[in-house]
């Protein structure tokens, strides 16, 4: 096994739980490890720290797999890791029929993502080490998850940094173009071949459910104490809200993608939701999902640029009880952070101006390069400029099937908050 000797003057990120060794942290490489091979990582004094997978030309030179020097990477290792990841999901999720089963480094399998959509698994490989071990993956997933089809969506731009070309293929079984799943009591048609990422964003599952208390009533309504939201009432709300004398919230859902937040809002009692997205394809999928759940009559579908439409709605003096902002990542790299922060301030400023007094702003960021404190600061600045006072209802991160590896800031990518909005 090759040996990687780390520099004496380096940040102790590895000891704090970060699973990556960058090239500029390495003092010496002993032996001639092949790309993707296991290597032993030692400090400058020769003490064994961890074992990982080697990539000589990537900025991430070593991806740690274990702090146990006796660990060996083979098919048994992969199966054991997948079993552990699957057991974790079954412990914390009520519905494991549709979830993220493997989340790369956070599950000790660097460079591998596995999402389960009923009997179909969609995988994404982002590292050279896992790419050369692709043949191990399908048999393990068949054995552990019992899936009947496995589709590979290895089209992430990060593959290029590993010297890998994009790959999309059916690895096993008869891979359908679309799969139906259920999440939070809502049905979705998931496009696994042409949808974004692997087809569906599981990381916002619990955050979508968290909007229930703010959408059940409009800003001007005054719920009685016995009308507090309870999750078990959701199906009753869905069945009776159209006939009920209760009005329910009017909601604006920007960057709506295929309608997940909007459909959750309706399920939990919203009267009407305006969905805005720049993608015609995503909007068509959102319309399809709304129809599948019987929600079409309470949806307004708008294809357009959210920044432009927010300004237009402000000019038209439109107001909503709840404004939801769930944009794509504005910062793809560290150089884009400054412009990303300007973008986050702009959409939150415009969104705040559309919220009725006593209404709510539901806002998120999935830019890993934007720190949580930076994101929260621009929301404070947006509230200042909009002459609004915010009261934090809830701050959250990614769902439980996206566990956060403490010591790895990159895992803390999703920021989600609900604010009550009042005038100043």
UniProtKB/TrEMBL annotation:
It comes from Sulfoacidibacillus ferrooxidans. Belongs to the methyltransferase superfamily. RlmI family. This is Ribosomal RNA large subunit methyltransferase I. CDD domains: AdoMet_MTases (cd02440), PUA_RlmI (cd21153), RlmI_M_like (cd11572). Keywords: Cytoplasm, Methyltransferase, RNA-binding, rRNA processing, S-adenosyl-L-methionine, Transferase. GO terms for molecular function: methyltransferase activity; RNA binding. InterPro entries: PUA, PUA-like_sf, PUA_sf, RlmI-like_PUA, SAM-dependent_MTases_sf. It is an enzyme of class 2 (transferase). One of its GO terms (biological process) is rRNA processing. Gene3D superfamilies: PUA domain, RNA methyltransferase domain (HRMD) like, Vaccinia Virus protein VP39. It is found in: Cytoplasm. SUPFAM superfamilies: PUA domain-like (SSF88697), S-adenosyl-L-methionine-dependent methyltransferases (SSF53335). Its EC number is 2.1.1.191. Residues 2-87 form the PUA domain.
């Amino acid at each position: 096994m090759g040996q990687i000797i780390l520099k004496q003057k380096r940040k102790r990120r590895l000891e704090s739980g970060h699973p990556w060794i960058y090239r500029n942290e390495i003092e010496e490489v002993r032996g001639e490890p092949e790309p993707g091979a296991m290597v032993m990582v030692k400090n400058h004094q020769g003490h064994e720290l961890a074992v990982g997978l080697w990539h000589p030309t990537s900025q991430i030179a070593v991806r740690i797999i274990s702090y146990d020097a006796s660990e060996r990477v083979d098919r048994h290792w992969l199966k054991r890791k997948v079993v552990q990841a699957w057991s974790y999901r079954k412990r914390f999720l009520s519905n494991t029929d549709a979830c993220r089963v493997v989340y790369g480094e956070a599950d000790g399998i660097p460079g591998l993502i596995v999402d389960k959509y009923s009997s179909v698994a969609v995988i994404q490989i982002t590292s050279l080490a896992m790419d050369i071990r692709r043949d191990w993956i399908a048999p393990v997933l068949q054995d552990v998850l019992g899936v009947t089809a496995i589709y590979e969506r290895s089209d992430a731009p990060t593959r290029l940094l590993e010297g890998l070309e994009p790959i999309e293929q059916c690895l096993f079984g008869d891979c359908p173009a679309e799969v139906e799943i259920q999440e939070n009591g809502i049905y979705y048609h998931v496009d696994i071949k042409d949808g974004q990422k692997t087809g569906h964003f599981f990381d916002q599952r619990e955050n979508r459910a968290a909007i229930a208390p703010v959408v059940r009533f409009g800003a001007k309504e005054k719920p009685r104490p016995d009308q507090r939201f309870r999750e078990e009432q959701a199906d009753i709300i869905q069945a009776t809200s159209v006939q009920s004398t209760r009005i329910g919230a009017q909601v604006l859902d920007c960057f709506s993608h295929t309608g997940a937040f909007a459909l959750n809002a309706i399920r939990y009692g919203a009267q009407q939701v305006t969905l805005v997205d720049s993608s015609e394809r995503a909007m068509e999928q959102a319309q399809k999902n709304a129809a599948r759940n019987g929600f079409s009559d309470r949806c307004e579908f708008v294809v357009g640029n959210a920044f432009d439409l927010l300004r237009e709605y402000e000019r038209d003096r439109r107001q909503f009880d709840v404004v939801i902002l769930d944009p794509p990542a504005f910062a793809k790299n560290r150089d884009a952070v400054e412009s990303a922060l300007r973008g986050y301030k702009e959409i939150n400023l415009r969104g705040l101006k559309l919220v009725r007094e006593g209404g709510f702003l539901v806002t998120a960021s999935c830019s890993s390069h934007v720190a949580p404190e930076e994101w929260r600061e621009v929301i404070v600045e947006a509230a200042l400029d909009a002459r609004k006072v915010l009261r934090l209802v809830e701050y959250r991160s990614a769902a439980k099937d996206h566990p956060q590896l403490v010591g790895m800031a990159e895992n803390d990518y999703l920021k989600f908050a609900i604010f009550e909005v009042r005038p100043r």
